[in-house]
Amino acid sequence: MAERKGFFKGAAKEVSITSPAYSVTEITANAEVIAGVKSEVMAGAFHGIDTEVLTVKEAKDLVQQFLEKKVK
C-alpha cells in the first residue's frame, strides 16, 4: 500500500487536552450564552458549591442537575 505524505511513522504521542476554567462570576455573567438560562438559574445551580473556578462542562452539568431536581 502506498504511504501517504504528511504522516509520520511511529507511535502517536498522547496529548492531554484540558478545558479552560472560568470564575463562577464570569460564567454567571454569560449564563445565557453558555447554558441558555438566565443568570438567576445559574446562581441557583451554583449555590453551595465549594469552588470558585469551573469549566463550561461542569457549569452545564450543575445547571442540568439543578433543573432536574424535584421541588419539595
UniProtKB/TrEMBL annotation:
Residues 20-70 form the YqzN/YkzM domain. Pfam families: YqzN_YkzM. This is YqzN/YkzM domain-containing protein. The lineage of its organism: Bacteria, Bacillati, Bacillota, Bacilli, Bacillales.
